[in-house]
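help with this.
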Amino acid sequence: MIDLYTWTTPNGRKVSILLEELGIDYAVHSIDISKDEQFDPDFLKIAPNNRIPAIVDQETGVQMMETGAIMLYLAEKHGKFIPKVDRWATIEWLMWQMGGLGPMLGQVHHFVKYNAGKSEYSEERYSKEARRLYGVLDRRLEGRDYIVGSGRGEYSITDMACFPWIARHDWQQIDLNEFSNVRDWYVRIAERPAVQSGYQIPKYVTDIPMP
């Protein structure tokens, strides 16, 4: 049994989507960041950085924060969604999401959606970087169904990590039709039943936005 401590953010949805795809038992514990519940002392014991999501694996005693680490741990434990032949490519693109796509799109949300008009420089800087990153992903997906894997690619934790951030393309003022490879990949992922259910953990907010 996995205890998942999470909220309705892109980072939280990465792990709930993976757990749904794995089809394993897990218990959901809502950490409402709008109420600063991530600063609760009990949560701090599991996630010293006060960020969701975090997990506790009741089978092994492992407790873990940071989505990249959590996803690698779960994928390797269950032997799924991390292609053996393309293991390092999977890790490479997972780190791209962790170090680039997520943080930069998060800055777009902060300056463009929530604080529009307060810093023209910041809005322009991060919006430009968002479009650059969409372009990187679009080029990677040329001729591919998924981000890594042989042939046309193999569905992996890398797709699950990137998808929830792209799902907020409207927050980023991005028209997915401008990035046709990303658009097609996004629709392909969004149609998966486990993605649809994992997206609504720990509660329903909206349907998955579609282009």
Notes: The helical segments are 10-22, 41-46, 67-78, 87-114, 120-140, 157-166, 180-190, 193-198. Residues 2-78 form a domain with the Glutaredoxin fold (CATH 3.40.30.10). The CA atoms of residues 36 and 50 lie 9 Å apart. The chain has a mean pLDDT of 96.
